[in-house]
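step: validate -> pass
step: tokenize input -> pass
step: predict -> running
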Amino acid sequence: MKPPKIPFMPLLLKDITFIHEGNKTFQDNLVNFQKLHMIADIVRLIRHCQSDQLGNEVVGSDNPEVRASVHHLHIIDNQQTLFQLSHKLEPRA
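step: predict -> pass
step: emit ->
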């Protein structure tokens, strides 16, 4: 079983917000299609992650393999630890 692609939604929502707020929807009474294309690219990425293009079958919550994977997830909810791990993986330039 391949692990699913799970998009990091806060980052994608931030990107959509910056695209929306940083670009006019209309320029000279014309639709700004570049802005719409940027938003569509992000929506397309989300839809790609939701689809079954990787050959993963859709499994129910009663699947023991899924339950075992979820049961063994290590969750880090300490913001300082997450910050340190982030800088360890991608140090500031």
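step: describe -> The two ends are 37 Å apart (CA to CA).
step: cleanup -> pass
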